[in-house]
């Protein structure tokens, strides 16, 4: 069955994907370590702790220390995954990641749950809307967000097997499973879900299934859509973006501020190529607040309806 | 089993003179760098590199080597002096400090300089890296030790204490923290900028095995390193070294301004004479 025909009724959280995959990887490779900062349960590393205690470190509520400690471990050949919430993993630890991980280009993975607006009822303080933008500006850093459970598992596996700093973003809530279990993913290579020639939609993470639904409806109305899952924000798949530029009209969709994330990254390529237009759908340069996730998405226009309306506006 | 080199106190003192001269020469040539802290740390660094540490300059990435983390990365000229004198890089490299492409970057860069175990330069962060290395050593059942030098002013950073509590939790008796207690930071005396109080007591309260010594007495440094070498009591160690910023150069001693400026030609010549004379 093609992705376009799927009903997307089975749901699972991407943080679960990390929790499941890291146990498998840790058993295969004794150099894989997990560093927790007192939120192992919600970051889904509890099974890792139970099954692989010798490869686990919990530093308590001390994120900055966790990043430096991971760097020290990496110098001895370990492959540490620092596991925390995205808002702390990207901002509280930002300078430590820059100085001790990215500058010396060490093999440290920053694996963060609760990305984007998904810590919805926790309020604006816990919603990570700038994380990918901050970390994509550090040299040597790779920035990844899977669109469902299976793609996230594959991307975690790839990150573990690829040398260098990687930021992996997961989310709290269950989201529809888009891909088959055996689908392959390559870091830095966009996944084309559908080809088309009227308009291109480039989405990532939890918004891919929204873009997928929008694409289906647009197709039903006779509008041909090219749809990309841009799971790697950095290095961005420039060739895939250039193919979209050839269509001329691009919509980006992300659960992240429209500043410096996927939308900005695509705009950079479009501006450098000197043609095409982009409309960015994402968090509209504002903080969130405590509210249901769907309400927060709606307040920022991150909806199937807005993707369709935006497509029609620029066609 | 830790191995150290057989070298007398007198020889170490001679090495300390070479270390100081080399560091000041580098900074003078570059007309940039941090002489004050380089000189306050010089005696400890000499004892570590020429006697205590189990290292092999011909194999800088030897996996069983002792590790050194210069958390106060700005005093790298004194570490670079050791690396140049021990042959990690040709001695002439000292004349390239802070130049484009040099192994001797303004702050330690492990990707550019053999013998640097971790890049540092942002204060408060190095000790965490040392803790990571020491945990790896324990888990891998290796005998290597990890030595880290922090500044007293640097202990104003909260991350130092995050790292310290982790070292105690994981019983890292293979970790030794040295505090270069020279009492000065960029803007003046620590006691005026932000008092760090009694760092020996603070580290002791965190659960460290601690000691406080004269950081310019080679006898005291060597004796202390001898005492703690085989001490496997589950506690990380902290040695507070009472030092003088700019030690060995009269016009620099205890003057905050010499934190990060280079001597001119006249000052350089005077410094070299005084350092050589200090041996007598």
UniProtKB/TrEMBL annotation, chain A:
It holds the Pfam family Transketolase_C. SMART domains: Transket_pyr (SM00861). InterPro entries: PDH/Transketolase, THDP-binding, Transketo_C/PFOR_II, Transketolase-like_Pyr-bd, Transketolase_C. Residues 12-177 form the Transketolase-like pyrimidine-binding domain. Its cofactor is thiamine diphosphate. The keyword Cytoplasm does not apply. The keyword Glycoprotein does not apply. Keywords: Thiamine pyrophosphate. Belongs to the transketolase family. This is Transketolase family protein. It comes from Metabacillus sediminilitoris.
């Amino acid at each position: 069955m093609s992705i376009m025909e799927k009903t997307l009724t089975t749901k699972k959280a991407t943080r679960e994907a990390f929790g499941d995959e890291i146990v498998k990887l840790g058993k295969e490779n004794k150099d894989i370590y997990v560093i927790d900062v007192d939120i192992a349960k919600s970051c889904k590393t509890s099974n890792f702790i139970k099954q692989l205690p010798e490869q686990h470190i919990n530093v308590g509520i001390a994120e900055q220390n966790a990043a430096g400690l991971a760097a020290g471990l990496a110098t001895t050949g370990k492959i540490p995954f620092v596991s925390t919430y995205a808002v702390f993993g990207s901002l509280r630890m930002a300078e430590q990641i820059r100085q001790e991980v990215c500058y010396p280009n060490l093999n440290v993975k920053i694996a963060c749950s609760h990305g984007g607006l998904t810590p919805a009822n926790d309020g604006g303080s816990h919603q990570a809307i700038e994380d990918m933008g901050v970390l994509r500006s550090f040299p040597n850093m790779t920035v990844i967000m899977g669109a469902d459970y299976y793609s996230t598992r594959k991307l975690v596996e790839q990150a573990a097997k690829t040398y260098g700093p990687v930021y992996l973003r997961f989310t709290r809530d269950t989201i529809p499973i888009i891909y088959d279990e055996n689908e392959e993913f390559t870091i830095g290579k966009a996944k084309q879900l559908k080809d088309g020639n009227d308009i291109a939609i480039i989405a990532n993470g939890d918004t891919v299934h929204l873009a997928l639904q929008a694409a289906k409806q647009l197709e039903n109305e006779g509008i041909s859509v090219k749809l990309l899952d841009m799971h790697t924000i950095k290095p961005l798949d420039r060739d895939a973006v250039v193919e979209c530029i050839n269509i001329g009209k691009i919509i980006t969709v992300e659960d992240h501020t429209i500043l410096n994330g996927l939308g900005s990254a695509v705009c950079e390529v479009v501006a450098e190529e000197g043609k095409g237009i982009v409309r960015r759908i994402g968090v509209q340069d504002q903080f969130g607040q405590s509210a249901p996730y769907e309400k927060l998405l709606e307040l920022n226009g991150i909806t199937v309806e807005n993707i369709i309306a935006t497509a029609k506006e620029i066609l | 089993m830790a191995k150290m080199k057989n070298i007398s106190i007198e020889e170490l003192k001679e090495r300390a003179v070479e270390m100081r001269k080399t560091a000041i020469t580098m900074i003078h040539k570059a007309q940039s760098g941090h002489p004050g802290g380089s000189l306050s740390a010089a005696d400890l660094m000499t004892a570590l590199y020429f006697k205590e540490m189990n290292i092999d300059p011909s194999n800088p990435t030897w996996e069983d080597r002792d590790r050194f983390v210069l958390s106060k990365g700005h005093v790298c000229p004194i570490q670079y002096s050791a690396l140049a004198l021990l042959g990690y890089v040709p001695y002439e490299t000292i004349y390239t400090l802070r130049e484009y492409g040099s192994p001797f970057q303004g702050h330690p860069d492990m990707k550019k300089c053999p013998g640097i175990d971790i890049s540092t330069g942002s204060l408060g962060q190095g000790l965490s890296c040392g803790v990571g290395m020491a945990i790896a050593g324990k888990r891998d059942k290796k005998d290597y030790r990890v030595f880290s030098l922090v500044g007293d002013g640097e202990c104003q950073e909260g991350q130092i204490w995050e790292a310290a509590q982790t070292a105690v939790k994981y019983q890292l008796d293979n970790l030794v923290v040295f505090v270069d207690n020279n009492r000065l930071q960029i803007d003046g005396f620590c006691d005026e900028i932000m008092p760090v109080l009694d760092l020996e007591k603070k580290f002791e309260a965190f659960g460290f095995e601690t000691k406080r010594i004269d950081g310019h007495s080679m006898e005291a440094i060597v004796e202390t390193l001898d005492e703690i070498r085989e001490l496997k009591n589950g506690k990380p160690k902290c040695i507070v070294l009472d030092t003088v910023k700019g030690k060995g150069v009269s016009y620099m001693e205890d003057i905050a301004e010499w934190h990060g400026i280079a001597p001119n030609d006249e000052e350089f010549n005077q410094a070299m004479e005084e350092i050589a004379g200090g041996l007598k």
